[in-house]
Write a structure and sequence with these properties.
The structure is a single chain. By secondary structure, the protein is of the alpha/beta class. About 35% of the residues lie in helices and about 30% in strands. It has seven helices and six strands. Strand 5 and strand 6 form a beta hairpin. The model has no long low-confidence stretch (mean pLDDT about 90).
């Protein structure tokens, strides 16, 4: 699997605020849902209804033994520009991969010292990309972005979140989505594994 990471932590970059709500959504449904406390609230996420692999990923990442929890997610068919960039990165032709699918999940580490330390987060990204590179996912890419985060669930804490972007290509949209689901499953398993914690 092609894996890379970067950081968007300058003063101009957006900060992930948890809990959050979407002011443009009059229904109030687009908001932070703490899936650690309320795992059955997965049913309220429209993205999950449309894409079951995302539901499995969120369930695993928010499970009691998981080192992380999730704040936001989305999944979509890649547009032409995203597809071109991904094909160039994966070195596949438009004939071989005319379709693409992608998702992102914002994750935060539960361990406070890790959440608060940019240096430790950097080390974690090195480990994550090193362990994900050998995964047998030739049509998928993992792109991680470290972002500043402000979490106020039991009192305000400043630290860092990671946006996990997983994108995949395929011969048709269904194949692209299958490749994405397989890559997502592999990355989630890695995030849950002891290998990542050990380095």
């Amino acid at each position: 699997m092609l894996s890379d990471w970067s950081a968007e932590c300058s003063s101009d970059d957006p900060v992930l605020v948890v809990p959050w709500s979407d002011p443009s959504d009059p229904s109030g449904n687009r908001r932070f849902i703490d899936l650690r406390e309320n795992p059955y609230d997965l049913d309220h996420l429209p993205e999950v209804e449309q894409h079951p692999p995302l539901m499995h990923a969120l369930r695993a990442l928010n499970a009691p033994r998981s080192a992380v929890f999730t704040a936001k997610c989305d999944a979509w068919l890649l547009n032409a520009e995203e597809l071109d960039n991904l094909r160039a990165n994966l070195d596949v032709s438009s004939d071989d991969a005319p379709a693409g699918f992608g998702s992102y999940i914002d994750i935060l580490w539960r361990e406070r010292s890790l959440f608060a330390s940019y240096h430790q987060m950097e080390q974690m990204m090195h480990r994550l990309t090193r362990h994900s590179s050998p995964l047998d996912q030739p049509y998928a890419m993992l792109d991680c972005v470290i972002r500043p985060a402000l979490v106020d669930l039991t009192g305000p804490q400043e630290g860092f979140a990671v946006s996990l972007y997983i994108k995949a290509v395929g011969h048709e949209s269904q194949t692209a989505e299958q490749n994405w689901a397989s890559a997502l499953d592999a990355v989630v398993a890695l995030l849950r594994s002891k290998d990542l914690a050990l380095g």
